[in-house]
Amino acid sequence: MTTRFHTHHIDLRDDVVVKRYSAWGRGEPQREWTALQVLDRYAPGLAPCPLHAELDAEPPAITMSRLPGRVLRGEDATDAHVAAIARALNRLHRIPAGTVTALAPAPWGPRTAVAKVRRFLAARPDPGEDPLVRKAHEQGAAWMATTDPDRLLDATHPPVLGPADGNHANLLYDARTEQVRLVDWEDSGSNDRAFELGELTEHISRLDGTLDPDALLARLDLAPREAERVRGFRRLVALCWLLQLGPAGAATPHNPPGTARRVAERLLAVLG
C-alpha cells in the first residue's frame, strides 16, 4: 500500500498496518473497526483483517493486516482492473441485508448529498467566466430544480455496506491474483447501493487516471430501475464536485488549473 493519498497516519510494518486517526468526531475508528469485522466474517480477504483496536485511546488506533498490491488512483484502468473491481463490489454487496441494516447509516449518502448540493446552490455561487463551466452549472441547477433528486431518496432496494468514499486510492489491486481489495472504512455504514456506485464512478480521483464507468457498471447485476438511479446519483455527485471546484468553491485552490472544466464536461455528459 502507499501513503500518497492517506489523510491519517499509516504505520506500515512487515505484515500489519497501524492506522492512527487525526479526527474521530463522527466515530470514524468505530465505523472502520465494525466494518472490518463484518467484512472479515462475510467477505474474508476483501479488506484488511482486523487484528487489534484501541478505540478509546487518543488518538484512536486500529491494527489490521497488510495487503499486497498497489492503489488504482492514478492508473489507467485496464479490463483486468475493471473486472476485478466488479468482482470486489459484487462480493461486498452480497453481505446479508439483515447484517447491513443493523449498522449505523453512512454519514455520506443520498440525503446528505442532496442537502449539500442544495445548500451550495442556495448560496448562488459565481460559476465564473468559462462558458462550459457556466453551462454545466446552469444545467445542473436546472436538474436539481426538478423532482428527480427527491425521487432518488425513495430507495426500495435493501442497503449495502459501503465505504461512502469513492476515492480510487481505496482500491488496491494485486496483479498476482488479479484481485481488488478495499481499504479505508472510516466513513462506512449502511448505504444505498446506487449512491455508492455513483460516488465511486464520479469521485474527483477519477481525473488522476481513467476508469470507464459504463464498462464497470455493465459487469454489475443492476436492474433497469437501479441502473437509472445510479445515473441520477452520478449526476448529483458530479454536480457536487463542480460546485466545490468552481471559481467560488472551497476546494478550488487544491486542484490543478482546468479541473473545473474537466468536471463540467463530465457533468454535461451524465446529464445527457
TrEMBL record:
InterPro entries xref list: Aminoglycoside_PTrfase, Kinase-like_dom_sf
Annotated GO MF terms: transferase activity
Keywords: Transferase
A Pfam family that the UniProt record links to this protein: APH
Domain Aminoglycoside phosphotransferase: 15-218
Source taxon at top rank: Bacteria
Protein name as it appears in the record: Phosphotransferase enzyme family protein
The organism of origin for this protein: Nocardiopsis flavescens
